[in-house]
Structure formats: C-alpha cells, structure tokens
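Supplementary Methods. Inverse-folding protocol.

Structures were first reduced to a discrete structure-token string of length 142. This string, shown here, constituted the complete conditioning input.
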C-alpha cells in the first residue's frame, strides 16, 4: 500500500510494481486484482481492468447526433491499473489518479496497456443505482 504523499521517485527507485485501485470500484474481487498483477508480471506491460460498454454511443458533430458507434471496440476502464516495475522506473512522474487518464498517458508515452475483462462486481459506482446493482450482484444466496 502506498499513499499519495509518497514521492514518485521513491517508488520508481524501489523497483516494485504499482497497483492503482479506484475506490469507486469497491467490490472488485481480490482474485481479479491478483490476476491483473500476474498478467503484468508475465507480460511486462501495464494491465487495466475493463468492463464492456452496454450503453448506446452516438457520434455528435456540429451539434447534430449522427451514427451509432459499434460498442464491440469500446471498453469502460474499471480497476485496477497495474504498472510493472520497469514501466514505473521509466515514468518521470506519478500517473494521474484518474485511471482512464493514467491509461491514456501510458499509451501516449509509448507503453503497451493490456486489458482484462473485470467481473461484473468490479464495475464502477457512479450513482445510488450502481450501489443497488452491486448489492444485488454480491448479496449471495438468500
């Protein structure tokens, strides 16, 4: 565990993998976080949890709603983001605390970012309805 007050240079010099977890994904199973860490260790690439996009996404141009975007090529970033030690050492500064921004920054800097599909309970909470959905997903038999 590392808190945000730890200097990035200290993390980079420590030669350790960094696992960033979004607290708005509170029910992400520890086994999934471990699987992401294992994948990053094996591949040497950053690994991020994702969920499929289920909403309809439209193109908007010049104030007009246009074509529907094919959801097959879209993912929603969830948690965690695992950054292998070699990638951590190559970064000049701490990644954004927003995982989607951190993923974009890693990719823009030329680092490969692999995705692993997170289980349904790994979804991000953005509303009271999301809390109810997570409660239903994790309630167990009953």
């Amino acid at each position: 565990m590392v808190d945000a007050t730890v200097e990035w240079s200290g993390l980079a010099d420590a030669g350790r993998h960094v696992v960033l977890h979004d607290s708005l994904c509170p029910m992400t199973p520890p086994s999934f976080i471990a699987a992401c860490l294992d994948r990053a260790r094996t591949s040497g690439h950053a690994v991020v949890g994702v969920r499929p996009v289920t909403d309809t996404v439209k193109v908007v141009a010049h104030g007009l709603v246009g074509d529907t975007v094919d959801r097959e090529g879209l993912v929603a970033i969830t948690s965690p983001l695992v950054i292998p030690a070699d990638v951590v050492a190559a970064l000049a500064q701490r990644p954004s605390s927003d995982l989607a921004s951190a993923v974009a920054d890693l990719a823009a800097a030329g680092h490969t970012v692999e995705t692993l599909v997170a289980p349904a309970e790994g979804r991000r909470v953005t509303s009271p309805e999301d809390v109810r959905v997570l409660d239903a997903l994790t309630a167990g038999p009953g």
